[in-house]
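User: tokens in, sequence out, please.
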């Protein structure tokens, strides 16, 4: 057998490497056909979207459009690894609204799951700025990453609040139900969805027999309207009141997709392979953790059994009413 000159071997090796690289680039281009205007929004800065989050959100949307499940021209994504509170009253923009037909990309703020501290048992709570704990257990108040579809809109009366001198308004909050897949498949069971980050606090009963919301004794609930857009949620996606109105209008009777990052596989891969995570939050939390429902639900159920909630008390009558 004739030997091949060393120079020829080097040239052949170089050609093989070039062909392999070209093939890799072509396959990546075919897999990630993100238009240039949208690719320009990819990055690690506030208001930008990470490459992996965009690719997964876009793939989910195109899949559902192909199945005929979605006709909405826009889709959503959320990066729960990014900070929710940037300090000095500035909120981190980590929820994305993407409308490719009109080449529109918008980043807004959104809350993350607060988690819980079952004192003396286990602490899986999250701070205001960065989320360390994720999970899909019932009553855990944790965010679960993965694929979702927006569902029906439910509007409910929460009570009245003061808007000015002797001026009251009814607080009607709309909730968009999410339906998840995989680890997020119990989203409906957990009552996970999107709504305005507003709640009534300090509730009492005020006499208002003419109100259509009055009870049989002529009383209506009354409280102080509190905005917690810079805080945390019970696992739902919470937006500022202005953003919530726009989000709800976009998906009411017109469902679309929402992809939330990270999934449990991403959390596991952070320590092993250095999978994407927002650098500032990773430095702050040390290491993220996913709490599977099969592990956490029995703990929560036992804690609830050992620490039963006090019976609900009737609302007091408002002073001066």
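Assistant: Sequence out:
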């Amino acid at each position: 057998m004739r030997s091949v000159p060393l120079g020829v071997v080097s040239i052949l090796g170089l050609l093989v490497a070039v062909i392999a690289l070209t093939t890799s680039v072509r396959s990546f281009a075919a897999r990630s056909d993100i238009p240039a205007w949208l690719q320009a929004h990819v990055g690690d800065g506030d208001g930008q979207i990470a490459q992996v989050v965009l690719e997964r959100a876009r793939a989910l949307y195109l899949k559902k459009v192909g199945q005929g499940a979605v006709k909405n021209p826009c889709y959503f994504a959320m990066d729960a690894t990014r900070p929710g509170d940037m300090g000095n009253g500035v909120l981190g923009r980590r929820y994305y609204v993407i409308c490719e037909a009109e080449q529109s990309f918008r980043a807004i703020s959104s809350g993350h799951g607060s988690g819980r501290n079952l004192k003396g048992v286990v602490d899986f709570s999250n701070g205001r700025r960065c989320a360390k704990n994720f999970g899909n257990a019932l009553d855990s108040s944790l965010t679960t990453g993965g694929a979702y579809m927006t569902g029906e809109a439910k509007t409910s009366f929460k009570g009245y609040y003061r808007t000015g001198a002797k001026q009251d308004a009814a607080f009607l909050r709309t909730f968009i139900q999410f339906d998840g897949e995989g680890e997020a498949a119990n989203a409906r069971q957990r009552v996970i969805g999107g709504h305005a980050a507003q709640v009534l606090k300090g509730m009492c009963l005020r006499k208002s027999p003419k109100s259509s919301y009055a009870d049989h004794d002529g009383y209506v609930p009354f409280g102080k309207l509190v905005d917690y857009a810079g805080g945390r949620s019970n696992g739902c996606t919470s937006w500022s009141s202005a953003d919530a109105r726009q989000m709800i209008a976009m998906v009411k009777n017109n469902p679309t997709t929402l992809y939330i990052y990270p999934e449990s596989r991403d959390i596991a891969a952070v320590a092993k392979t250095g999978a994407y995570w927002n650098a500032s939050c990773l430095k702050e939390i040390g290491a993220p953790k996913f709490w599977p429902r099969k592990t956490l639900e029995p703990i929560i159920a036992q804690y609830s059994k050992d620490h039963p909630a006090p019976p609900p008390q009737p609302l007091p009558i408002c002073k001066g009413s």
